[in-house]
Every structure is written in structure tokens, then in C-alpha cells.
């Protein structure tokens, strides 16, 4: 049985990927700080959870590991801008360090999930592919690009390294997020019949369902190294390249109640269309989900009560809440406790 290490295993993508790997017969070492709770992962005899910061991951954790899927990241642009140094340390430095340790300890494969946000702003008539110049505009995108540059040179005949640049992810997950475009649109439609949309709607963005991108990761675990080693693959589908105004209109058409669009904010300068021909032609992989299907999936999950708490669904808000309470608890703690303290006698 092959063992796969997944960092960021308790997050939005990891909590979909880990059960999928277990169902496929892999053993999994799930590495995470578990900011969103360890309950997002199933209990399973072939699952080992390692509560650790990726910046402090010890070499012994890599024992008997066949492959690493290095998902760990401060995971969106607003969080990246507020926590710039942590984003640099986690999204860039820790992942390069993990790749070096994996190679040293005899791991066979290393998969770096990166982001199509590296392409940044592109002219409306340009469709970028893996050979196109990048234009990262945010701390999050820049850290991903530096991680790519750090891990790809490690590829050799004994160590397969592959980078996937994921389109903007959407769809239901045990650790659901509503700070992602399609998920946020579905939430607005469910809560008040309004889809929030950043101006001016003409910006292009590619999308991929969380089930599709995790399927691609599983495929790369067994793909021929001659095809994937040292390569970058965009992961998404051409049919899921949308102008956001068009996307919102399509989603209103599948939601089972009247929905309007509410514009907000300044115009979003991140705009890019992406080609996914390389992964389709090289590996025969295609995304299965449409944006409308994903939005309806989220809407139905909300209607069925499958999102019991909204507290953790906006990543930046949850990070900020943890930091606030960390300070409160730290300030209130004395002698190792708050009400029950160490060193007292009955």
C-alpha cells in the first residue's frame, strides 16, 4: 500500500482529497495545523493525522511516503495581503523545504498545487497556456510562483516533480468556503436572492470544481513520469473560462428562485483566460463539472442544512477571529490556566 502525505489536509481541497485517496486504497499522512478542526477528515484505519506547522515539518514524517501533495497555503488574496510574511513563509519557503526533505528521504513524487492566478491581468483577446509569461499581482500569486521556481529544479530520474496551476476552485467540501466566486454567488442566492459581483463583470476567470482538481491530483500519482516529470499543467476546462457577469447570469438560470445581481467594489484587475489543452492532450484528463452544476450543488447543500455553521467559511474572517482569541486567552492565562490553574492544592 502506497502512503501519500497531504499537507493542508484539513482545508477546503484537502478535506475532499484525503477521503478520495483512502477510497482508492492509499494510506494517507494528513499534515495540518487544523485551524478549521480535525473533524473535517474521516476516521479511517489507513489515515494518520500529524498536527504540525509545515514550517516545522520533521524529516521522520516522510518515512515510507511514496508521494507528497503539498496543498498547504494561506489560501486567498485578502489573507495573503494581510499576512504577507506568513504567506511567503508557508506558500513559498515551507513548500520548497518540504520538496527538498521529500527528495532527501526517498519520496518518489512531489505534486505542487499552484494557481492560475499567476497569470494576473491579460488582454481580453489572450488565452494563456503553460508557456505564457506570468504576471502575478498579489502576494498569494507571487508566493506560488516562487514555490514553482524552487521545486521544479529538483526533478530528476528518481524524483518526479509536477506543478498544477489550478483555476479558481468551487464546489462543496467538508470545509466549505464562501470566499470563492461561485460558492459566494450560490450563498448570496440562497440567503437573500442576490448574487454579489465585483465590478465590472467583464473580467475573465477560469474555474474548476474541487472534485475535478482532486481527480487530477490522483491521476498524477500514477501517471507516467516521462509525461509529467518537471512539467506544469493548468487544471480546469475551457468551457469554464467565464466573464464574471456572464457567469452570474448563468447561475441565476439554475437557482430555483428569483435572483438578482448586486455590484460591489472597485473594478477587479485580475483578468485572464486559460488554455487547458496540455493536460487534456497529455493525460486525457478533462473536468466533468460545470459552474452551474457547482452553484446548484452549493445551493442544495445549504437548503439541506449540510453547512451547520458559517463561522469558518470566510478564510480571512476565521484567521482574524483565531488571532483575536489567541490574544484574549494569552492575556487572561496565568499559571497555565484561566479558572483552573496549575500548582493549586485542594
From TrEMBL:
Superkingdom of the source species: Bacteria
Q: Which InterPro entries match?
A: Epimerase_deHydtase, Lipid_A_modif_metabolic_enz, NAD(P)-bd_dom_sf
Protein name listed in UniProt: NAD-dependent epimerase/dehydratase family protein
Residue ranges occupied by any NAD-dependent epimerase/dehydratase domain in the UniProt entry: 4-236
* Source organism per UniProt: Paenibacillus silvestris
Amino acid at each position: 500500500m502506497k502512503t501519500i502525505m497531504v499537507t493542508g489536509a484539513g482545508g477546503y481541497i484537502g478535506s475532499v482529497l484525503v477521503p478520495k485517496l483512502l477510497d482508492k486504497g492509499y494510506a494517507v499522512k494528513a499534515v495540518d495545523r487544523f485551524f478549521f478542526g480535525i473533524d473535517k477528515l474521516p476516521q479511517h484505519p489507513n489515515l494518520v493525522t500529524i498536527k504540525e506547522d509545515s514550517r516545522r515539518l520533521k524529516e521522520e514524517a516522510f518515512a515510507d511516503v511514496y508521494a507528497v501533495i503539498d496543498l498547504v497555503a494561506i489560501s486567498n488574496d485578502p489573507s495573503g495581503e494581510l499576512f504577507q510574511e506568513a504567506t511567503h513563509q508557508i506558500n513559498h519557503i515551507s513548500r520548497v523545504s518540504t520538496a527538498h526533505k521529500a527528495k532527501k528521504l526517498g519520496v518518489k513524487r512531489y505534486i505542487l498545487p499552484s494557481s492560475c492566478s499567476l497569470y494576473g491581468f491579460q488582454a481580453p483577446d489572450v488565452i494563456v497556456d503553460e508557456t505564457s509569461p506570468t504576471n502575478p499581482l498579489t502576494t498569494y500569486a507571487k508566493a506560488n510562483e516562487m514555490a514553482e521556481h524552487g521545486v521544479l529544479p529538483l526533478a530528476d530520474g528518481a524524483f518526479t516533480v509536477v506543478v498544477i496551476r489550478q483555476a479558481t476552485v468551487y464546489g462543496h467540501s467538508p470545509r466549505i468556503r464562501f470566499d470563492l466566486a461561485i460558492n459566494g454567488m450560490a450563498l448570496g442566492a440562497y440567503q437573500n436572492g442576490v448574487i454579489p459581483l465585483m465590478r465590472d463583470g467583464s473580467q475573465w476567470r477560469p474555474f474548476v470544481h474541487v472534485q475535478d482538481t482532486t481527480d487530477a491530483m490522483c491521476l498524477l500519482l500514477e501517471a507516467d513520469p516521462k509525461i509529467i516529470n518537471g512539467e506544469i499543467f493548468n487544471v480546469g476546462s475551457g468551457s469554464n473560462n467565464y466573464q464574471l457577469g456572464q457567469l452570474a447570469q448563468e447561475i441565476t438560470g439554475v437557482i430555483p428562485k428569483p435572483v438578482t445581481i448586486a455590484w460591489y467594489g472597485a473594478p477587479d484587475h485580475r483578468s485572464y483566460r486559460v488554455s487547458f489543452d496540455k493536460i487534456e492532450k497529455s493525460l486525457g484528463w478533462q473536468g466533468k463539472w460545470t459552474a452551474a452544476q457547482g452553484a446548484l450543488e452549493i445551493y442544495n447543500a445549504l437548503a439541506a442544512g449540510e453547512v451547520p455553521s458559517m463561522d469558518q467559511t470566510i478564510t480571512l474572517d476565521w484567521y482574524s477571529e483565531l488571532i483575536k482569541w489567541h490574544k484574549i486567552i494569552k492575556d487572561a492565562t496565568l499559571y497555565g490556566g484561566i479558572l483552573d490553574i496549575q500548582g493549586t492544592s485542594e
